[in-house]
Amino acid sequence: MFSSRNILFLILGSVLVFGCGTDEPELSDTRGYISSAKDEVYFQGDILILEGSFYNNQGLHQIEIINEDLDLYFVLNLQGQIVYDLNIEHTLPLLQTPKIHEVLITLTDVNTEVRTFSYLVDYAFRPKILNMLFSQDPTDPNKRYFQGRLEDPHGIKSLKLHSLRIGDMINLQFPDQVYIYDLNEDFWFPIVETFGEYPLTLQIVNKRGFNVTIFDFEDALGN
């Protein structure tokens, strides 16, 4: 059985414990979000838009967004403000290879505590065709040649040259790991189709499924 003295000691002890707890400072905690364009793919020259909102009840000191690969450098002194709304635009540079880049958004609060948020930039490429040339065989008026260089760091999947009046004239499927291909393809027109205009459509697809399509060539048959 507790005596009056023991009961008084327990009461005083409880008061001291809870009293000390209320005197401790609340830990600083930065909260917020960075908007995510899920499954969005970026290409050279695209505008990367970073938006978000961040909060710290004791004050924010600095935000820093740096990614050397993407030529992205953004540092701002927030001067202790409680809420910061982010909205920046950045033009993506020409890179040499496709890659998913992780952009880190680092916030430092007035107590020098750090919190980071991330945003993924899926940098990709479309196929490229260079030095495209059509010519006619000097010995066969119905035979044409198509030349050029294909380039794609994802790998080239297919090329199709098509005419609505004639159908497919070239249809190439490439094996894996073909990143550069020099075209020197020949194709024919039926004799009855050798007169008039024949707009052509060229489509090149890479291994990620991105394509470049050129519609309605004219004067592509050569002389």
What's a quick, concise take on this entry?
This protein has 223 residues and is mainly beta. It is 9% helix and 52% strand.
Describe this structure in words.
The chain is mostly beta strands and 223 residues long. The protein folds into two domains: 31-123, Immunoglobulin-like (Sandwich); 128-217, Sandwich (Immunoglobulin-like), CATH 2.60.40. Helix content is 9%, strand content 52%. The chain contains one helix and 15 strands, in the order H-E-E-E-E-E-E-E-E-E-E-E-E-E-E-E. A five-stranded mixed beta sheet has the order 2-8-7-4-5, with no helix packed on it. It has a four-stranded antiparallel beta sheet with strand order 12-11-14-15, with no helix packed on it. The longest helix has 20 residues, at 4-23. It starts with a helix and ends in a 6-residue tail after the last strand.
CATH H-level superfamily of the largest domain = Macroglobulin (MG2) domain
Query: Which regions contain 5 or more consecutive residues with pLDDT less than 50?
Result: 2-27, 219-223
Major sheet strand order: 2-8-7-4-5
Question: What overall form do the CA principal axes indicate?
Answer: rod-shaped
- Average per-residue pLDDT, rounded, comes to 84
Largest sheet: 5 strands, mixed
Kindly name the structural category.
Answer: mainly beta
CATH topology assignment of the largest domain: Immunoglobulin-like
What's the helix count?
Answer: 1
How many β-strands, per DSSP?
15
Please trace the helix and strand order, writing H or E for each element. HEEEEEEEEEEEEEEE
Number of domains: 2
> What is Rg?
32 Å
Helix content: under 10%
